[in-house]
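Bench notes, bay 3.
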Amino acid sequence: MSSLPFLPGNSFDLHLGRERFHKSQHFALVEGLPKLVGLEKPGIGGEPLPGQKIKAAHSVYPKVDGSHVPSWLAFDKQVLCFEAYFKEEEPYQIRKCKVYFYPEDDTIKVVEPVCKNSGIPQGTLIYRHRIPLPPPNDDQYYKVFHFNINQQVVFYCRTFTLTNCDTFTRDFLTRLGVQLNDPAPVPDDPYSRQRQQFEKNTKPIPPYEKNNKLRQFLDYDRQVLRFYCFWNDQEDPSAKPRELILHYFLFDDTIQIHEVTSAKAGNKSAVKFLQRRKLPKSLPAQVDQLGGDTESILLNVLGSDGLGNRFMADRLKTGAVKQDFYKDCDLRIGGEVNVWGRRVLIADCDEFTKQYYRFKYGIEDFTPVKYKLPPTPKPPKTLPPYNGFGSEEDSLSSCYGIQLRRPRKDLQSFLEKDSIVLKFRAKMKTDDGDERKRKFVIYFYPCDGTMSVYELSLKSSGMPGGKFLRRSVVKKPGQSKPSERYTAQDLYVGAELHISGQTFTLVNADEYTLKYMEQHAEEFSKANTGIILSKLRSIPEDKKSEIKKFLTLSDPNNTGQISYESFRNMLMDLDCGLVDHEVLVLGRTFSEQQQPEDDVALMLAVAQDTLRRKLYDDFQSLTLAFNKQDPLKNGRIPRKMAWNICESVHLPVSENLLGTLLTKFEGADGIDYQAFLAGINWVEHPASPVKYEDILRFEVNARVGAVEAGRRNVNYSAVLQDVLNLSSNCKDAE
């Protein structure tokens, strides 16, 4: 007796090595109800039962032969189309159809074209689904390789012959390696031939002439030519020319004329001068009978009561009346149109009509015809003088209408310029010495055009100072009604204002006002650098030579710079046509301001002293705030972000000092905030004490206007070279 079967690896247990022992279910819950979901289920572990064949779900190609993309994605929206036919014996008939195969899921659909009045159910013969092969292979389904031209396929006991396919199907099968057969002819169908003959006999005969206006309608629908015309009534020589508007409709060549009437003219005639219709060029010899103006004419052949009526088209046009109608080529400016005996002259046309004739006929001359005198100019409207009650705008509203309305204000200008205030220094223009010593400040508000005047109090002057004029609108003296008011353009350094019976001369302006006027140079001509330079370029050559000589003598060391006062006195003495404000702007433009370089250690010491006096020591929270805004952890953040962090924690340092410190620690990639924080940390890195003068240098001087500093020195060499086209070399002047 052999013991080989009992050795390891020689066992009769069929379940040895298997991992799946589940039982396939035939029932499942569908919408809460137990239903039979499958009959052809495998056995234990998915193994087929004895004699059972599992049908394939769909075509599966080897992965080595194609892409790894699933079929439903690879063949999405791809359909193979075959032309086919099948036969019917009783009665004998060849029925043509199309077979559609969807490679994504191997589904098939058969569609037969619908034929009118065939009496046969047509359309979709077989809806899209997977079709099994004929017996004995009915456990399998049709795949793409079962289709070829000039072969037969059987769908549910009906034989279809594939005769041809489209280009996409041919290329698709060729790429798969299928060798396509030649197209097969379709057998002759007696029934189809009989129906075609019947439809041909019953088809109506087309008219003897082609009258298709669809193209004209599609091209010119809603396009109308407009002409302005006039007509002189010969029966009434004293009547004025009657104005007309002629409309020509391009899509059907019809004309409509309207009369332009006025309520004051007293003309009671109808507004419609000509109803819309085709307009003949000449009057017909006789009035057309009913139906005589139709385009096609029918003849009554029999015309007998016993035989009935038989009509046919008039091929010889025996009853046609030839009549010439106005076309678009007949209408032009200066031409006449005969409107049933009335001579209408075309005087002008609109822009669309000009463009139409310019494009189609190449006409460029559209000079209108003058047929009436120009309208009489209206007399100027005189306004009564201001009576002193209320504001002048309120009084004028009663002159513009019966119903009084509040004058409108410019809300947009008010919202844009609400926070803008222009500030000027002024003094009185008078012969009294004491009055000339008085100093005033004039505030102008561009949002509503008002101004206020305050007087500065001076010691031992006898003038208390204070409000000189409350905020109100100031009118210019000697103006006609309605009087004009002072605007922002009337205020500049050197201007004279007449306020409350006194004449004020503006002698200076603050830095904000000067910058605002320079930034809005298109509104303020006195602060427009381009206009000022053009004035200097237009001065005579002799004055240019005097300017050259004066500047050379004023700068013996040939530094190219002179003081602003010398520069201003020179331009004002030579009478170059510039006012004080223009000279001031010119000096600010060509100023050379050299400020000493600030010491970083001194600025950090001043910042530490300020933080120490303000009892600020929360540097840990400040460091965390900077680190949070540094995602790269490179110790650099933008300048704007660093400024926002300092403001968010209310760092008690002046804006001027903080801005200067950030500039010192700013690099190409941002602010070095670690060095900045270490420099202002007075707890860990205390600095040496600072003097009170150094604190005032950064705390007080930061708020002083920079007008005098900005115009300290003027680079006159740039003025000579760029503006006057002269050289600043001293030898040339000699």
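Next record in the batch:
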Amino acid sequence: MESCNCIEPQWPADELLMKYQYISDFFIALAYFSIPLELIYFVKKSAVFPYRWVLVQFGAFIVLCGATHLINLWTFNMHSRTVAIVMTTAKVLTAVVSCATALMLVHIIPDLLSVKTRELFLKNKAAELDREMGLIRTQEETGRHVRMLTHEIRSTLDRHTILKTTLVELGRTLALEECALWMPTRTGLELQLSYTLRQQNPVGYTVPIQLPVINQVFSSNHAVKISPNCPVARLRPLAGKYMPGEVVAVRVPLLHLSNFQINDWPELSTKRYALMVLMLPSDSARQWHVHELELVEVVADQVAVALSHAAILEESMRARDLLMQQNIALDSARREAETAIRARNDFLAVMNHEMRTPMHAIIALSSLLQETELTPEQRLMVETILKSSNLLATLINDVLDLSRLEDGSLQLQIGTFNLHAVFREVLNLIKPIASVKKLLVALNLAPDLPEYAVGDEKRLMQTLLNVVGNAVKFTKEGNISITGFVAKSESLRDSRAPEFFPVPIENHFYLRVQVRDSGSGISPQDIPNLFTKFAQNQAIALRNSSGSGLGLAICKRFVNLMEGHIWIESEGLGKGCTAIFIVKLGIPEHSNDSNLSFIPKMPVHGQTNFPGLKVLVMDENGVSRSVTKGLLLHLGCDVMTVSSVEECFQVVSHEHQVVFMDVCVPGIDGYEVAVHIHDKFTRRHERPLIVALTGSTDNLTKDNCMRVGMDGVILKPVSLEKMRSVLSDLLEHRVLFESM
């Protein structure tokens, strides 16, 4: 027991309790002071915390409590043991709880801050989503309005309806007090009030287009807010105490059509705009929102597109109407031209026959008169009549050829002929005239020039004779040279005729003919006019009034038909000229065949009369009938004449060797006569030769004659020499079809 009583505790119990209280008060004070610091940090970091004053109050309370406990450190007094134990226990528990709370707040506050941060982020995101949804809804609403407006605007392509519909729909959609459209005047210097929303009849007054506010709007692609007091915004008089509503203006591009064509897109003039002015109600505090301005801009663009479509439609309809008018005019002109062509052809056909019939009488009687005894003076007169008649016959042929060339009815008569003989015949025909004028005419044919060729012999001879005839006509003294050779490929092209493209083909060649004279020559500036019909060189025409001006024009067309080219070269007046033409001819497969259809057209030197040859002549025209009979009688023929088909049927017999008939006389069907004669005489050697003696030059007459079995066609007029040649060839070959 003593030993136990000797062991004393290091700290007395009361002192130990005091120590515990002292330590507890220290930790309580420390916890109290740390909690406000943590709360201050939390409030500072949590900018959106809504109850800051509560935290401040709570912090002050804790500070005061902490200060109270801190003060207790210096106010310890001895109490009873029970009170000391209770106080110690309470303080220890308070210290434990306070420290635990302080430690827990250290861990909880960062979590609370992160939650608040996420909450703030989510709130911001939610607000952003709300704004985006608002924009989407606004855009959807704007799009719906735009679609609705576009549908209404484009429901018509009438310009006035488009503009009026635009104002009405904008006013209804945006609840506008007024909406107006200013259009540029024709001069482009002013804007005119053309359309308004509320006024049925706009005033129509104008403002200068150079106003600063107008330039500001025209220079911007967006809607521009303008002053309600500017000239273009004073659309209605102000009434009452309300301030005018906000006004915006936007430009509307106008399509400017210039030289609109079907395949060309019109040009858009960037300087021509209309001005659309929109005014909010005056009795409200409304302002223009962004989506409303975007709606106005989109509608302005849609109006521009609709106006462009309307302008294109108006222009296309105008072009269509103009085209229809032109088509009607062209159709009328075509019908008139066809009527004129038919009338001309009918006229030429009648005049051809009617002119050739008296020409036949004049030439035939003149040639018969030449065979009689005449005084030199009388013979000169007869020769003059005969030459003049031949010239008139040539003119008739030229007019008919030109007419058929122009309407495209003339076709080449392709056949094999003696090319060298054509040159010699032209030379023989021209020599008598040249000898009278004492001109030397030389013919030079290249050794490689084929003797036979395939082409239109008559048209080639007509062209060559016309060119050589012009050289003789306009040459008073000197010489004329005719050269014919095969054109080489390098000499085919002529820079003066870029449209002439010679294409060498197998079994074909290009004949080049040059006729050079030492005559009066031609001015270079007059050369292009030589190939114009009824046109002559004035200097030449003054010295020589003969000729119609058709020769070279017809030659040019003949040469073009033969896929060639013709031109004239001359260094000037008094220096002569050279006529050159190139034509395309074929090479016959067998050049040495004896059956080539070349018949020399030389004067008949053998049998000049045909005594006892029985000939029947059928012609309704008494003069022509008498003239033909006179020619045949002069040649020794036994001639019988009839004037009708019935008479011909009655008198024709196997004794008649030749029957001449005019197949183009009204009221007489010569083709029926030919068919009847064929039926009457079934044996060929008993049937007379049937020859059409006609003044018609169309190919249809020749085809019809061949169709009914006629043996020949002779074209009026007929001279004594021609009749002699015709009978000789007819009796020798039993067939003779003269080229039309």
